[in-house]
TrEMBL record:
CDD domains: SANT. InterPro entries: Homeodomain-like_sf, Myb_dom, SANT/Myb. GO terms for molecular function: DNA binding. This is RAX-like transcription factor RAX4. Pfam families: Myb_DNA-binding. Residues 120-140 are annotated as: Disordered. The gene is LOC107948257.
DNA sequence: AAATTAGGCAACCGCCCATGA
DNA sequence: ATCATGGGCGGTTGCCTAATT
């Protein structure tokens, strides 16, 4: 037996919201709040709608400071970078773009951004770009796969043209054993809009970018770090000259967050930390963050989903 | 001008997870 | 520890409008 439906589907109205319904919902929430119970809200507000429908309407359309319309270049960049990092975690991405909803971003990705990137991808297939190597990069680890021609397909939740890591053939690697990702938006000049990224150890998560701000619900996800977490701890950052070199992504266990890059660190190789180092980095990251409406600025990435969706950053 | 096609977006569906009883 | 419930999320659908034939 399946679970009971959240509302009586026969008696609730579906389809587009009328202005009257909008104003009823808006007025009610502005007066009384949601009361932490969306299921009961429509009845109290005099609406013949499913609670989930009310929630969606409020979050995506009625709540204050919602931004509609064209996405800026900056927003575009944030979406692309985060998508490459965490996949289709629209709510997490939306949390980095004030005023934007996950639905908005999802639609934007599916209708425009994806096509834009696919166009770039097909360009790159016609003419393989030269491979820029940052001068400061000492040793490029072997076995990085050239992923420049792959693109993500949400319907199949996979990257077109991608194959399991275990079957990556050496002849698929590019001639410098570097790793490529399409990104025309970062502030650097590399031929054909390409930038090199260098995986660290087994997992790559790094982009020059602003630190994460908060989750959309304003919740805090902080958790004490244990010594066993530290054994899995890794740090990543962009090669010199790419993106924002000041930030550094920490990854420990299934958690990731931005932190200040340790002073004096300019390479792309893994850093070894002990427990105190990790705590110090995370503390400084939290206290330096400009988004103060939250207890901390952590966002966490489900490891299984990350592996599934960000495979092309692995080697 | 009418019909058809494509694109964009709001809304729905159903699954998963967190929480509280 | 288990179960029921609601919230949250990503994927998908379907309607509306604009563009094209």
């Amino acid at each position: 037996m399946g679970r009971a439906p959240c509302c009586d589907k026969a008696s609730v109205k579906k389809g587009p919201w009328s202005p009257e319904e909008d104003s009823k919902l808006k007025d009610y929430i502005e007066k009384y709040g949601t009361g932490g119970n969306w299921i009961a809200l429509p009845h109290k507000a005099g609406l013949k709608r499913c609670g989930k429908s009310c929630r969606l309407r409020w979050l995506n359309y009625l709540r204050p400071n919602i931004k509609h319309g064209e996405f800026s270049e900056e927003e575009d960049m944030v979406i692309r970078n985060l998508f490459a990092t965490i996949g289709s975690r629209w709510s997490v991405i939306a949390a980095q773009l004030p005023g934007r909803t996950d639905n908005d971003i999802k639609n934007y990705w599916n209708t425009k951004l994806k096509k834009k990137l696919m166009a770039l991808s097909s360009q790159s297939q016609r003419k393989p770009p030269p491979l820029p190597i940052p001068s400061s990069h000492q040793t490029i680890p072997p076995s990085y796969k050239d992923c420049s021609s792959y693109y993500y397909t949400p319907s199949t939740r996979s990257f077109e043209g991608f194959e399991p890591l275990s079957t990556v053939q050496s002849d698929l690697l590019n001639h410098n054993n570097t790793f490529l990702a399409t990104d025309s938006s970062l502030n650097h000049t590399t031929p054909d809009s390409f930038v090199s990224y260098y995986p660290v150890k087994e997992k790559l998560l790094m982009f020059g970018s602003e630190p994460s701000c908060s989750s959309s619900d304003g919740s805090s996800h902080g958790k004490e770090i244990k010594q066993e977490d530290v054994s899995n701890f890794q740090g990543f950052c962009a090669p010199n000259g790419y993106g924002d070199n000041h930030k550094f992504m920490l990854s420990y266990g299934n958690r990731n967050q931005w932190a200040e890059k340790p002073s004096g660190y300019h390479g792309e190789t893994p850093l070894d930390y002990d427990l105190e180092d990790v705590k110090r980095l995370i503390d400084s990251s939290s206290s330096n963050n400009s988004c103060n409406n939250n207890n901390n600025n952590h966002f966490f990435i489900d490891e299984s989903k990350r592996q599934e969706k960000v495979m092309y950053y692995y080697y």
